Structure formats: structure tokens, C-alpha cells
Amino acid sequence: MSSFADRLLAWFDDHGRKNLPWQHPITPYRVWLSEIMLQQTQVETVIPYFERFVAKFSGFASLAEAPLDEVLHLWTGLGYYARARNLHRCAQQVVAQHGGDMPSDMAELEQLPGIGRSTAAAIASIAFEQPCAILDGNVKRVLARYHAVEGWPGKSSVHDTLWQFAEKHMPRERCRDYTQAIMDLGATLCTRANPQCEVCPMRRGCKAKKTGQPQSFPGKKPRKILPVKTVQMLIMRNPQGQVLLLQRPPTGIWGGLWSFPEIETGSDCENHIAAQFGRVQHLTRWPVMRHTFSHYHLDIAPVVADLLPRPQNIAEADSRVWYNLKSPPALGLAAPVKKLLTLLDEFNLEAQ
User: Fold this and answer.
1) Active-site residue among 35, 51, 150, 264?
2) What whole-number distance in Å separates Cα of residue 269 and Cα of residue 302?
3) Could you give the angle at the alpha carbon of 124 between the alpha carbons of 137 and 159, nearest 5°?
4) Domains of the chain (ranges plus CATH)?
5) How far is CA 297 from the centre of its chain?
6) Which residues contact 349 (CB under 8 A, 6 or more apart)?
7) Strand pairing category for 280-285 and 258-259
8) Could you give the CA distance from residue 200 to residue 131 in angstroms, rounded to a whole number?
9) Superkingdom of this entry's organism (predicted)?
10) Is 35 one of the annotated active-site residues of the chain?
11) How many Å apart are CA 117 and CA 40, to the nearest integer?
12) pLDDT by residue (tens digit) across 12-51?
């Protein structure tokens, strides 16, 4: 075992996180589920979602058999919904191709939907005690600082260098503890802002600490001005107060989720609604709200339209539903859609 691993494991024995929900018990299913949820998401945010998921779906078989809508509904609010769709596909593939048991081989793991190199290594090391190095965001930060690796980790040359260090330090024993330890170090001491260098077990050999500017590592992502897209969302209510939702295509932004009908900014909402859905009794425009994706901002102009009785052409179908605010069905909703529905319900209560 390298001195790096020795020091890290000694620190972990006294200070590591050992009471996270997915650690009791540790199973391949629970490790996989937690690792997918933890991609680009903080532990504190993930915990309640994880607990709801395992309460509903105890293993690969129950998750594989569930309707995608049910999976997306439980995922609502966690973001990056491709993870939920891949989660569902992965469970189905594990059942169909591996008899319901998660494979332990790295190459087989990487063939499963939603599992890349680092996630596969996390599953292999934590669930199966294999010496497979990971490189998530926390680990990149720890290694970039310890070795003073300059540059943004998203750059291929920097990324490759960090992988080399990750594999160099990976011990052959206590693989599970080491993987958890290096993640914990990045999450609790070697944080992005205000790293606690004076109590860090790696301070003796840390090159970034010697520079006196540990926060300079790793290098920041080059700033990019995000483009802005605009759309009008049509919040249409029938006389019973139910709201029309449409299911989005399975791929693309909010794939498979339920949302409001949309039209381009500047289009005549009332004429469009009358032509497509029915006559409008009353129409209200709400303030524009912004939702930011990784590659652009989306400015949403909500338009609330109360339809006259017996709206035309809007029978429920597989891809559309009248959403009851008082007893909402279990549907996967995009975050801004959920927010708008909540606001609509609050306004209804105030009006009563």
C-alpha cells in the first residue's frame, strides 16, 4: 500500500462517513443506485431520494418491472433526467442479461446504460472489493491539489494525468474503504471553497498546499456565455380545474417527462389554443421564469388559459392527461413544470 493510501485510510478509520443509507447494508444494487444518484448531485440532496427509491424498488427486478413514469415521478426534482431513464434501462438489462445480478467485471459494468468508467470502478471497488480507481469530482480535486496538476480536468490531457495518479494510489487491499475515503476527503476537508488544509491527513505531501494557493487547483472551466432560448408554456385548465399535460418524446430535454404544451414566443396564444384545444374564457400571463440547463438558459413565459366547457379535441390519450392538482397522479415532471403547478395550486387556494 502506498503511503498516500496508508494516510488516507488511517484518517478514514477515525473520520470517514460510515452511516450513509447505502452503506447499511452494502449491496451491488444499493451501491449502483447511490452512485448514479450522486453523479453531479450532493449527498444531502440524494439521501431522501435514495430512501424513497429503495422503499419502492427493493432490487433490480422490481425496478425493471416498474413503468418508466413511476421511476421518473420518484426522480422528479433530482435533475439530469437521463440518469433516471438509464437507471430504468440498466435494471432491465441486468435482469435480462445477467439474471438479476449486477456483474462485477469492469468491462461488463461499462456496457450497462448510464455507467461510465468511474461509476463502474466505484461499483467494483465498493460492492465487490476490487482494486479499481475512481475519478469523480471530489477525487479530481484531491489529486489535482496533491500533485499540483494544472489546468481544467475537462481537458483530455489533464484528465488523463489525473487518471494515472488515481490508479497509482489505488491500494490492493481495503478497496471499498479507500474509495469511500478519497471521496469523503474531497467532500469534507478538501472542498472547493475553504479547504481545511491544516487538519488534512495529506497535507505533508500536498504540493498545492506548499504553493499557499490550494484553491487554484484544479483549474477552472473556461467561462462560456450561455445562449438564451425562449418559449411560451400554455397552462390550460378545464372547468373542473384540471390542467392539460403532454408527455415529451423519450429523448432530448426532459425526455419522457410530462410538461405543458409549448408555442414559440410571439405567437398568438389565444388563437393557437382556440384552434388546437378549445375556446378561451380567460387568459393570464405570468412573469417570465428562467430555467438553466448546462448549455443554455430557457426563459419560460407561462400563460394560464381557462377553457370554456367541453373543450374540443382534448380527450385523454397515452401522451396527454388532465392533471388533478388535488389528487395528482404519479407522473415525472420537469422541475419548472412542478414549480408552476405548485404556484397554480397556491393561487387557487388564495382565490377560494
Assistant:
1) 35
2) 11
3) 30
4) 3-216 (1.10.340.30), 228-351 (3.90.79.10)
5) 18
6) none
7) unpaired
8) 24
9) Bacteria
10) yes
11) 15
12) 999 999 999 999 999 999 999 999 999 999 999 999 999 9
